[in-house]
Amino acid sequence: MYKGRFGDYYIAKSWLFVVIISPCFYTLLFLYNDGSFEINDYIMFVIASIIYGFVVAIPSYLIIEILYRILSRMKLSNKNVFSIVSVLSLITTNISYYLFFGKNMFSKEAKIGGIPFMLIYSLFLMIGLLSFKKKLYSEKL
Predict the structure, then answer these.
(1) How many whole angstroms separate alpha carbon 50 and alpha carbon 28?
(2) Which of 26, 57, 123, 132 is surrounded by the fewest CB atoms within 10 Å?
(3) pLDDT tens digit string along 94-124?
(4) pTM over the 0.85 mark
């Protein structure tokens, strides 16, 4: 973990935020809401989703962490570094989920996955990247 341009452990904090918060919100909004889950089922499903999320998101995390380290050492503006990291985080994260779920992710029969899944996880990824970003006074380091 790297103490980089946007604060200590910036990518790790953002990654943990997505892996922990997104399954809670997704499950509550789409699975628990239909009435077929009891609270114990909800808790167990969220815990399982968090564990799977850790495993599935590790390659994406490693790629973005390495990229962030490289970009932080370059003479780029903070906006450029943030933009590149954000776009590539979205791409690698969604590729990870697609590889895990496969083409079934977008079928109508699938209960888990699809566009809502990708949108919620992408939304929380961007919220994490924005909220853990330390404000800097200079544009270049």
Answers:
(1) 14
(2) 123
(3) 888 777 777 666 666 656 667 777 888 889 9
(4) no
**DSSP class per residue in 43-107:** HHHHHHHHHHHHHHHHHHHHHHHHHHHHHHHSS--HHHHHHHHHHHHHHHHHHHHHHHHGGGGGS
d(CA 19, CA 84): 21
- Residues sharing a CB contact under 8 Å with residue 78, sequence separation 6 or more, in sequence order: 5, 6, 136, 138, 139, 140, 141
Determine the residue type at 113.
G
pLDDT tens-digit readout, 121-141: 889 999 998 888 876 554 444
Structure tokens at 89: 């985080």
Calpha distance 87→75 (Å, rounded): 19
